[in-house]
Amino acid sequence: STKMMIAEWNVTNGNVEDVNVTSFTVGLAGTVLPANMVDLIVEFDGVQAPVQSAVGTGGTFAISKILKTNTTVKVRVYVTVLAGAAATQTIISTGTVNGTTSQSGVGAASVATAGQTMTVAAGTITLGTGSNGANASITQGNKTITIMEVDLSTLNDSFILNGLTFNLAGSGFTTVTSVNIKKGGTVLRTFAPAAATVLTGLNVSASKNTHTYFTIELVLGEVGTGAGTSGESLIGTVTAATALNSNGGAGTLAITGGLLTSNTVTVYHDVPTLTSLALPSTLLTASADKVAAKFKVEGNVLGTVGWSDFTMAVNKTALAGSIGVTEGDVVRAGVQR
């Protein structure tokens, strides 16, 4: 069952005299059967009238309100729709304000005015991947990385994501010390890395017809001898989830593609960084031993790092064939390689 607002009106008094509003009449039509609706509620200018449990085709609600001249108030009508109401069925409301004028005591009633047509539709929540997860990359230990961002997309209802199954794949997870589920700046859950972890009680709220995001972080530890394995690849996956709808029942949940998979992040003891250095000269002449590029290689962690291969591409702005490289060498610390 779902409580929903099925109609809203603006009620405006003119400039002649105040009106003592005594009641508001709601008429109900459409294809939703009265047996599939309960608890008809009228809220007049923010004040709720007594609830009419049996909905039927509507009813008249007692109101006590002096509507001043040149003023406008809102009237909202709510009803609880039961599970027996089928998708695409409709509820159509009419509203009538009843009262008397304050000074002359003349009856004052509006015409029956149609409200909005409401159509029953199922609420759904879909899990997808957001854009703030890790790219396919390499990294070093002793840092925290966002392996995946999860996008909760809702339609027609609000939900609470309460369960999630997270798997760590790749070549292992010896480099991971813990995993965080995080929404904004708040850590919702921290757990040990495992091939498969079933989480419950997450309580991630998602309003209807919105996108809500949370991230999954991997906390990386030491890498190397006696610690995590250098060169280990990490892949995060979400294989299952559960959610509650606004009435606390099991929500209709789908995972895009049936499985959410992160990009692969490979963890090393250290990662090299290349930094360009100034050239002896930027003038290109036809001569031997011309320095075309100069750079330094440093490790992010230790400052020094071993490397064995180097690839360089030559881009030319002159016509093809007018500039050529007959021989190329790499010189390190004065020694030709």
Number of strands: 26
Strand and helix order: EEEEEEEEEEEEEEEEEEEEEEEEEE
Mean of all residue-level pLDDT scores: 89
Strand arrangement across the biggest beta sheet: 16-15-18-13-11-20
Shape: elongated
Q: List unreliable stretches of 5+ residues.
A: none
Number of helices: 0
**Structural class assignment:** mainly beta
Description:
The chain is an all-beta fold. It contains no helices and 26 strands. The chain has a six-stranded mixed beta sheet, with no helix packed on it. Strands 12, 14, 17, 19, 21 and 22 form a six-stranded mixed beta sheet that branches. Strands 1, 3, 4, 5 and 7 form a five-stranded antiparallel beta sheet that branches. β3 and β4 form a beta hairpin. The model has no long low-confidence stretch (mean pLDDT 89).
Which helices and strands, and how do they pair?
Elements: E1 2-12, E2 19-30, E3 37-44, E4 47-48, E5 52-54, E6 58-67, E7 72-81, E8 90-101, E9 107-109, E10 113-119, E11 124-129, E12 137-140, E13 144-155, E14 159-170, E15 176-183, E16 186-191, E17 196-206, E18 211-220, E19 232-245, E20 252-255, E21 260-261, E22 265-268, E23 272-276, E24 295-299, E25 331-332, E26 335-336
Provide a brief overview of the structure:
With 337 residues, this protein is mostly beta strands.
